[in-house]
Each structure stands twice: as structure tokens, then as C-alpha cells.
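Thread amino acids onto this structure.
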């Protein structure tokens, strides 16, 4: 008996007896039973009303600091004579010139600044 003839449902013979046997039709396997799962509804949490968290209390450390209202212009320290100008620095000459109403260019040399400042003082007197 060959397996092919059994699977094909053909008559088979045995070699010893020569008798023909009919193979029983193959029995299809039983279909599996359907898996039935019980539906369990999801557990819903009750709605929670979320309120936004309150902003943190922030204290600005700069609130207590004084606020400058106007830039302070340092006054010309002392009275000067035109003869003292030649011994002053270019920055000091510029400060004196601003207090007298003239803008000096510090890119110029110190003697030229002294000359301009002396001429301005002569013209304003």
C-alpha cells in the first residue's frame, strides 16, 4: 500500500494477496472551535476636571534696587586757569570742553586740544 494511493483515494492492492482494497475516503479534520472571548468593556476613569496649576510666586530681587532716573554728569572738579590746560589729560580737556559747550575730538593731539579750548575760552569772554 502506497501512501500516494491512500492520499489520492485510489484502490490499492497488497503484494502478497493481490486483493484490491479500497481506501476509505480521508476524513477532513474537524474545524477548530471558534474562540469566543467575552467582551469586557474598558474601565473608564471618571472625568477629572483639571485646573491649571497656579504659577509659582516669583519675587524679583531687582524690585528693591534703586532706579537711576538721569545720568549724573560729574561737575568740573575745580576752577582752572588757561595756563593749567597744558598739564591736563585729553579726557580731562574733553570734560572741561563739554562743560563750556564745545565738543573736542580726542583723536587730535593734546596740544591741539589745548589750543582749541583756549581759543573757545577767549571767544566766549
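Threaded sequence (125 positions):
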Amino acid at each position: 500500500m502506497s501512501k500516494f494511493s491512500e492520499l489520492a483515494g485510489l484502490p490499492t492492492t497488497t503484494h502478497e494477496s493481490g486483493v484490491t482494497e479500497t481506501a476509505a475516503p480521508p476524513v477532513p479534520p474537524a474545524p477548530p472551535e471558534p474562540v469566543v472571548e467575552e467582551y469586557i468593556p474598558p474601565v473608564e476613569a471618571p472625568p477629572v476636571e483639571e485646573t491649571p496649576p497656579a504659577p509659582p510666586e516669583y519675587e524679583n530681587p531687582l524690585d528693591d534696587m534703586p532706579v537711576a532716573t538721569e545720568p549724573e554728569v560729574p561737575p568740573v572738579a575745580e576752577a582752572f586757569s588757561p595756563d593749567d590746560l597744558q598739564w591736563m589729560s585729553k579726557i580731562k580737556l574733553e570734560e572741561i570742553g563739554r562743560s563750556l559747550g564745545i565738543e573736542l575730538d580726542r583723536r587730535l593731539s593734546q596740544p591741539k586740544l589745548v589750543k582749541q579750548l583756549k581759543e573757545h575760552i577767549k571767544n566766549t569772554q
